[in-house]
Amino acid sequence: MEKRRYRRVAFQAMASVQAGQTTFSGMVDNLSMKGMFILTKEIVQIGIPLEISLVLSGTSSLLSIKLTGFALRQTDTGVAIEFQEMDVDSFIHLRNIVALNSGDADACYDEYYKAVMSK
Fold first, then answer.
1. What pLDDT digit, counting tens, does each position of 63-114 carry?
2. How far apart are the first and last CA of the chain?
3. Which domains does the chain show, CATH number per domain?
4. What percentage of the chain exceeds 70 in pLDDT?
5. What is the DSSP string of the chain?
């Protein structure tokens, strides 16, 4: 059984990814504090730096989460991306999304605090 450090949740949102001079969009399939899988037919070179923007639409506004990362693995359906950096606001929004979609927000928050405190 695979043991992940961060919970992964099913989550659908549009993502825009810039890989060098190429920009493409796709639908997020799943998300964690460490990365995401984006559904796309775009071929992305493994290991190259990426700038990612998740666009979340609410009833009264749009919210964008900005992240940097790299392509970890490519499949027929999309790209696995590992996050490297995010600002504090993006971290808080991402943490809340994952926690609220995990089914156990308290355990999810504890998991993040333990990971942050161990660094």
1. 889 999 999 999 999 999 999 999 988 888 888 888 888 887 777 777 766 6
2. 26
3. 9-117 (2.40.10.220)
4. 85
5. ----SS--EE---EEEEEETTEEEEEEEEEE-SSEEEEE------TT-EEEEEEEEE-SS-EEEEEEEEEEEEE-SSEEEEEEEEE-HHHHHHHHHHHHHHHS-HHHHHHHHHHHHHT-
Q: What are phi and psi of 90, to 5 degrees?
A: -65, -40
Give the pair of three-digit tokens for residue 31. Answer: 């998300």
Closest to 44 in 3D by CA, of 17, 15, 8: 17
Tokens in use for 86?
Answer: 């995010």
